[in-house]
Specification:
The protein is an alpha+beta fold and 589 residues long. The chain is 31% helix and 23% strand. The chain is built from 16 helices and 25 strands. Helix 1 crosses helix 4 and helix 13 (501-509) packs across helix 14.
């Protein structure tokens, strides 16, 4: 086929494909335009999940009659003049593409009036073809009406999901924008029914309820932190409230919804060791940063951004979220119905626990399977986050030792009932926090071995260990290469005195993959967690009363006593109240 220039119709449909993927993308572009126009009220009407109609009416600055045609043209914008402007964008839009794109794949009507004009003007665009600008009576502001989306691109129509899914995408979008702009009144109408209405009074809690449901909203923790030109505000779920995927992790950067991998990772690290494997928090967080420190022009729908100082933002987000989280972490409590449920030895980690999760239908709260492995450590965090604020609510109460059962669990009494503590998980937590605390103070007491131990590792592991040797010294190990794939251990962290050195070395390189984590601090936390896991007392090991008591005391002193470094619970709690119900002293719940 000969090469030829595409007709403007085809090229604009190709361009539209990038910006307008589904009805929710239209809602997004139009809402962003209204916000850029300084609207205080934004009304969105939807029909047939946005296929038949999407209308966004605002009371913003409006578009002058003589600029209407330009507004609908490609690469026409009032938000940017020269390319340098790209690096301090203050508006949500800047590409000048949305209206042109939407107009090329629908029947679009723009009605608008600026405050200085006596009357408004209207322009219709049908599948990319503009009509004439007409004068009409209209209030100040803009009404953007998009009918029969994709009527001229049937292939696109076929890609749309069910009405419910498309509707949900629109709702998710508008509620999040409403949360990001609590001073703007949003109203969504579906057919004749109003489905969302916010007060525009700056109060985010109410909008949160619209987004997550009242029960969930009540439990969300507030984040509010600022530092050197950075600010993070918003809400994150407590560790008891999780979902099985990352879809509910939302970030806004400078008022713009982004799907930014690095931010999600930073957030997950804040939850590190506090969540079960494969569980993810619900969050809506707003990061504000100087416009020149973020490049917003890296993605067609502006869904991704790039930061100038990625590391600084990463650790700020992680610390701010961690702080909010550590201020509140509940103990897992056993629900009376579950108490006494037998678990077969083949699935010893399946415990029925009432995670006190709100019973929101969207929340996946089936019983959770404990994972004993390192997989939970996929998201690590710099050690400094571990000793964030220690708050009363996060602490465990003073516990009175009762004894050990099955050589595996420690039974203790607290002011509010019975605590069952998994000695291995608890000891792992204690060792991990002690080690990281010493590490942060840069003084890990080391203890020389009476006779140095020589350890030979498989080639792959030996290679991994060689690359980690400098880190090991930070941890009070003295290890050196001693021939091919062989190492000599001369000293160990005093904390692990008496532990098997070859066991410790093997733990360090277990499943170690090259470059598995980018930050040194992450590697260190991960290595520390692995060693602690290997050298912690095991289930099935009988402990003396003194050892049991010491473990309880140490656990009480931990920052995050309720989970092991891999995220498994260290304890379950049976409240006096639950006991009374079990014994029929109180009526059932
Ligand atoms: P961009 O937002 O990237 O500038 P758009 O195609 O979305 O590009 O809009 C083009 C221009 O039309 C905007 O720059 C703005 O001047 C004007 N405009 C669009 N929507 C509105 C609105 N709701 N209120 C006022 N002006 C608007
Ligand atoms: Mg725009």
């Amino acid at each position: 086929m000969p090469i030829r220039l595409l007709s403007s119709e085809v090229s604009s449909q190709i361009a539209a494909g990038e910006v307008v993927e589904r009805p929710a993308s239209v809602v997004k572009e139009l809402t962003e335009n209204a916000l850029d126009a300084g609207a205080k009220n934004i009304s969105i009407s939807i029909e047939d999940a946005g296929r038949a109609l999407i209308e966004v009416a605002d009371d913003g600055c409006g578009i002058a009659a003589n600029e209407l045609e330009l507004a609908a043209a490609r690469h026409a914008t009032s938000k940017l003049i020269q390319s340098e402007d790209l690096f301090h964008i203050q508006t949500l839009g800047f590409r000048g593409e949305a209206l042109a794109s939407i107009g090329s794949v629908s029947q679009m009507t723009i009605t608008s009036r600026v405050a200085s004009a006596k009357e408004g003007a209207r322009l219709k665009v049908d599948g990319g073809t503009s009509g004439k600008v007409e004068k009409v009576g209209a209030p100040v502001g803009t009404v953007l009406r998009v009918e029969n989306l994709f009527y001229n691109v049937p292939a696109r129509l076929k890609f749309l999901k069910t009405d419910v899914t498309e509707r949900r995408a629109i709702d998710a979008l508008v509620t999040r924008y409403a949360l990001a702009y609590p001073n703007v009144r949003f109203k969504v109408t579906d057919g004749k029914q109003a489905t969302l209405q916010t007060a525009g009074d700056g109060d985010r809690r109410f909008i949160l309820a619209a987004l997550y449901g009242v029960e969930v909203a009540k439990q969300m923790l507030e984040v509010m932190d600022a530092e050197e030109g950075l600010s993070l505000t918003g809400f994150i779920s407590p560790t008891s409230l999780t979902r099985s995927n990352r879809k509910e992790i939302t970030f806004f950067v400078n008022g713009r919804w982004v799907q930014e991998f690095s931010l999600t990772t930073a957030l997950l690290q804040a939850y590190h060791t506090l969540l079960m494997v494969g569980r993810y928090p619900l969050t809506t967080l707003f990061l504000d940063i100087a416009p020149e420190d973020v490049d917003v022009n890296v993605h067609p729908t502006k869904a991704e951004v790039r930061f100038k100082s990625q590391d600084k933002i990463f650790s700020f987000v992680q610390r701010a979220a961690r702080k909010a989280l550590l201020a509140y972490t509940p103990v897992a409590s056993v629900s009376p119905q579950m108490w006494g449920t037998r678990t077969t030895p083949s699935e010893p980690r399946e415990i029925g626990i009432d995670w006190s999760v709100a019973h929101d239908e969207n929340i996946d709260d089936r019983p959770q399977t404990m994972d004993h492995g390192d997989a939970a450590l996929e998201e690590n965090h710099p050690s400094s986050a571990v000793d964030g604020q220690r708050s009363f609510s996060n602490a465990v109460p003073l516990l009175r030792l009762i004894g050990q059962i099955g050589s595996t669990y420690i039974v203790a009494e607290g002011p509010d009932g019975l605590y069952l503590i998994d000695q291995h998980a608890a000891h792992e937590r204690v060792l991990f926090e002690k080690l990281m605390a010493q590490h942060d103070k840069k003084s890990i007491p080391s203890q020389a071995l009476l006779t140095p131990e020589v350890v030979t590792l498989p080639p792959q592991s030996a290679k991994a260990l060689t690359s980690q040797l400098p880190f090991l010294n930070h941890f009070g190990f003295e290890v050196e290469e001693f021939g091919t794939n062989t190492f000599q251990v001369r000293a160990m962290p005093a904390l692990f005195a008496g532990g098997d050195p070859s066991f410790a070395l093997r733990a360090l390189v277990e499943d170690f993959e090259e470059d598995e984590t980018p930050l040194q601090s992450e590697i260190e936390a991960k290595l520390a967690a692995r060693v602690c896991k290997r050298l912690a007392v095991k289930g099935g090991q009988t402990l003396t009363n003194e050892e049991q008591r010491a473990l309880l005391n140490d656990l009480e002193a931990c920052n995050s006593p309720r989970t092991c470094p891999h995220g498994r619970p260290t304890m379950i709690h049976l409240s006096v109240d639950a006991l009374e119900r079990q014994f029929g002293r109180k009526g059932p719940r």
